[in-house]
Amino acid sequence: MKRLDLQRRMAAQILKVGENKVWMDPEKLPEIKEGITKADIRVYIQKKWIKKKKIVGQSRGRTRETQKKKKKGRRTGVGTRKGAKKARTPKKKAWMNKIRIQRRFLKKLKEIELLNTKNYRELYLKAKAGFFRNKAHLKLYAKKFITKEKK
Questions:
Q1: pLDDT at position 151
Q2: CA 33, 36, 40, 45: dihedral to nearest 10 degrees?
Q3: CATH number at residue 116
Q4: What is the pLDDT of residues 49-67, one digit of tens each?
Q5: CA distance 111 to 105
Q6: What pLDDT, in 10s, does the model give residues 77-130?
């Protein structure tokens, strides 16, 4: 029995696809075997005995699901992370977040008159120098000044 390698190769060239992407009608194989020129193959393509297989892409469905979950804040555990802590949140951004929180807190204390201008300035400069680890640390330290003023 004659093989279809030649016909498959010519069809692939004509259809501009790989040999694996060429489909041949199983019922018309004996007629296709007779075609030995490119002109014959073109005729078979017109008769739809030979077709180009659909190119299967890569589904993004799973990726979209994962992205939705990440937007919600899921899938961010230790096993998922790539890159150092400072690559994920740069030093400057971390500092900006920290100092803004502390300054907002100090401003609030001054507005409700728990701190006078002198103490506010002192704490403000300490915050600027990076003395406080976080808002809780600042709150703990500020208690000394607040209790002094009340007396």
A1: 56
A2: 50
A3: 1.10.1200.60
A4: 999 999 888 999 999 999 9
A5: 10
A6: 999 999 998 998 999 999 999 999 999 999 999 999 999 999 999 999 999 999
Q: What range does the domain containing 137 cover?
A: 86-150
CB atoms within 10 A of CB 151: 4
CATH of the domain at 18: 1.10.1650.10
Both tokens of 29, joined, read 């194989």
Residue 137 has pLDDT above 90, yes or no: yes
| 44 and 94 inside one domain | no
Strand partners, 23: 51
Alpha carbon distances (Å) from 108 to 60, 86, 111, 116, 130: 48, 30, 5, 12, 19
Does residue 81 lie in a domain region? no
Q: Are 114 and 108 in contact (CB under 8 A)?
A: no
Evaluate whether residue 70 is within a structural domain. Answer: no
Domain count along the chain:
2
Distance (Å) of CA 40 to CA 9, 21, 28, 36, 134 = 13, 19, 13, 7, 80
Question: Can you give the pLDDT at residue 2?
Answer: 61
